[in-house]
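Sorry to interrupt, but I need a hand with the structure work. Could you write out one complete protein record for me, on any chain you like? Could you add the entry underneath, on a fresh line?
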Amino acid sequence: AQDTMIDRGWLAEQMKPAIEFGRRHKVPLYCGEFGCSQSVPEDGGLYWVSDVARLLDDQRVPWTYWNWKESTGRGSMGVWVKDGEQYVPQQPLESVLSGLWGPAGR
């Protein structure tokens, strides 16, 4: 099997058929959820989340992020992670998403 470099350009190419379909048929698109596997190194996951969200924003496709609260164990890329008996924001993921959701991100 050949390794594929997954970067923003590759992601844009994967989204292209859906974007073109929406334009061609004059229908709105919506990304119901996206996230990142816990098997991806944290830095890679942060780039993935940022790139996917920015590409969707560039195409004016509304999106939601999965997973809000860590549900499948440590490293699940949840915005909120279990710390003892409570949930706390996961840094730096919370910062990445806050930058996308806030006025500076739009």
Remarks:
- The first helix runs from residue 8 to 25.
- The chain is about 40% helix and 15% strand.
- The chain has a mean pLDDT of 84.
- Helices lie at 8-25, 42-58, 93-101.
